[in-house]
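Figure-free illustration: sequence to structure, shown twice.
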Amino acid sequence: MSEHQTTHETYTTHETYEAYEKLIGLLDEHGASYRVVEHDPEGATEAVSALRGNRLEQAAKCIVVMVKTGKRTRRYALAVVPGDRRVDLGAVKALLGGTYAGFATPEVAERLAGSVSGTILPFSFDPELELVVDPVLLEEDELFFNAARLDRSLALRTADYVAVARPRTAPIAEAAVSEA
């Protein structure tokens, strides 16, 4: 486990800060309205939303999904859903014309997203990673997400997010199963 943590720590110190700087540069270039929210290191949606003080519905939960589209072909989607929901793998599979959909391995997800799990941005900087956002999330005035770092989030005006990220929108969220 410490070997895995070392990999994450190395990744975090270089690529993650690079992704953060790339994001801030992109938002500034487009004149987007955002604010930085610093908090204790946390990657779980519910816990980090409590630290930031936002409702779960405003949190952009970002999951990299692998979709098999043929015997040897795969596509990857960055599925972004509200924090109070989960990704509907069947919907993503159908949307991308696949025969199977599942969560990408952490290594693949982190490589494509440019940051570690728990800090994945709702933006795609890799042509292999198609950005798909559930339209329910876009009903919020402001979105919150970890900014490629566990200790820093952004609150971004939704209209600016749509203008800058230019996501494909499709109903890809389902209600989260409560653990009662």
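We now fold a second protein in the same way, so the two outputs can be compared directly.
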Amino acid sequence: MISCVLLFTGGSPPKAHTAPSTAALAVKLAIGVGLIVYGTHKKRRVSRPREDPAWLGRVRHTSGWSAAGMAVLLQPWGLVAAGCAIVMNADLSHTVTWLTLMLYCLLATSSLLAMESYAKFRPARAEARLQALLHAITSHQDQAVVVLSLAVGFWLAGRSLYELT
């Protein structure tokens, strides 16, 4: 996603108070409001007990390619869109911005690579620890989605409103 945004923007943000800049701010505002609405909707449903979906049990026996395909479909697309909107305004003429973006990408992929490597070289130990991690994630998933959606939504909406005025 980040590479697509950089390809379309050419590595430079839209100039302030121009049509593309205003449109970008309006998109960021819409994404922020959407995340706020989603977060409040999800907050109302947090107290309901939920069961694991049936497909989660089948994930253990899928191939790597199937898992990769499901990963694309199961992304938190609202947060991905928020990230793309933020990267669109990045001024990549500065080395620090490039470095920050690269470090973000490395951090995002290194956590997955660490889990994959751990599972490959220590399968028995990894099974127990990754099972505990899965339990922790699934038991706190709703609260994390609510907090993250509201925080990013209010930040995007507030910043967009400030820049629009």
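Summary for the second example: The radius of gyration is 19 Å.
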